[in-house]
Known about the structure:
alpha+beta; 5-stranded mixed β-sheet
Amino acid sequence: MRKKQEGMILLISMMILFMLTVVALSTSKSSLMQAKMTAAVFDANASLNVTEAALFETADFIETLVNVDGFGSGGNGLYAEDNGPADMFADATWAAGKYWTSTGIDGVTAQVFIEDLGIPNGSFDNTSIAQMGYGQTTGVGTVHIFKIVARSLGPNGDSERITMTYYGKRF
């Protein structure tokens, strides 16, 4: 005599298929998360590289200056002493016309502003800046300190880097 099948094989197959589906979905979710994290790291590194390149480009620009007459209210990204933006993180600081744009890398550019902080005073000795020329001379002229701030968004626009440094030049 034959026994009637009651569908146990079908039930067990469905349970195994369900478990495999859950494992596959969780693996794909994990892979998607890793892809997003990788893209975010790439975006962050790209924006950091662009801001650092902009700092070097700005230092080269400062070296071409013969005086600080072009520094004023910052209409071109050049601010005179005590005239620079108070908050480098504020959106208004990076409004159009208040910065200049760096050359950039692979289509990603940085926004830059420079503030002339003037001649150092107080505990800072103007003659203590180690600048050597031919024959170990220190040169003549007055040293001006500049604050350089660069901001860049990554290629995807998902990350933002703001980098600040100081640069001294003898005029």
